[in-house]
Design brief:
CATH superfamily: Jelly Rolls
Number of helices: 3
Shape: globular
Number of strands: 6
Order of helices and strands: HEEEEEEHH
CATH topology: Jelly Rolls
Strand content: 25-35%
Distance between the termini: 52 Å
Number of domains: 1
Structural class: alpha+beta
Largest sheet: 6 strands, antiparallel
Helix content: 25-40%
CATH architecture: Sandwich
Amino acid sequence: MKKYEIVEKEIFSLLTSKQIAEISEAAVIKDFEADQIIYDRKEVAKNLFILLEGEVSLRVPSRDDISIESLSLEIEKIVQHGALFGTNLLFDVKRYMTRARVIKPSKVMILDAKKFLEIIQENKSEFIVMSYLAKVYFQRYINAMKEFEESSKQFA
């Protein structure tokens, strides 16, 4: 079985080896096929997700009928091994604000968000982790604004 090293990737480079070992023990790895939904907008946020292989699109539906994919705004394509997404609960947001849809067959590590918080709080790593996540969310905001700007040009 292929081993997935997350130590040097993204947020995990900020953590101790003990924290990474604890996170890895609590994690589940799941395979997803193209077009599968990992989580949906307004679903209760309880997990964090780490992309190990493949491609995932984070989208915000533009209307109440979230089944119409073409009427949604893509916030980001997650393609980088080790990229973290679905972090809502870390910000005390109880529901996901986007839909995570698989673009290419993907392998995703799934972590219980509360357990992750416990682990980083034990070694007082919350500030460094939350600072990192703030940067990630700010970049997603910029990406969303660019996407919105491009979409609005089509209707001008």
